[in-house]
Amino acid sequence: MSRIKSKDTNPEFLVRQIIHRMGLRFRLHRNNLPGRPDIVLPKHKKIIFVHGCFWHKHRCKYGKVRPKTNSKYWERKLSGNVERTRKDIRALRNLGWKVLVVWECWTRDASMLESHIRRFLG
Questions:
Q1: In a domain? residue 3
Q2: Which residue in 81, 60, 72, 59 sits closest to 4, CA to CA?
Q3: For the stretch 46-73, what's the b/e string if a residue is b when 16 or more beta carbons lie within 10 angstroms of its beta carbon?
Q4: In a domain, 26, yes or no
Q5: Would you say residue 51 lies in a domain?
Q6: How far apart are CA 51 and CA 39, in angstroms?
Q7: What is the pLDDT of residues 22-69, one digit of tens each?
Q8: pTM value > 0.85
Q9: Beta strands in 1-122, from DSSP E residues, in sequence order
């Protein structure tokens, strides 16, 4: 698990490229905000989280995979990730931020991903 990156992942780079092509500037991994969001657009008061489907139990085929060994540990860990993220997003919305969660599986279709981001950033 030590080799698994929590930031600067390929899906994150793809989202950054799309936003940059739109001519917008952003901040990365602001640690003074709940959940340390992946991408922060302070001028627009918008935040984008890029979540891995496995790590955040997405409803897609990649998020439904569960390890067979040490299953109790993994269930606790993944459920903890989901709960912590919910809490962080709620806190950010209470602070007045608009939040978008981009799932790793969305990055497989770049045009769909771009339309999601454009709609959110409007």
A1: no
A2: 81
A3: bbbbbbbbbbbbbeeeebeeeeeeeeee
A4: yes
A5: yes
A6: 12
A7: 999 999 999 999 999 999 999 999 999 999 999 999 999 989 999 999
A8: yes
A9: 27-28, 39-41, 46-51, 98-103
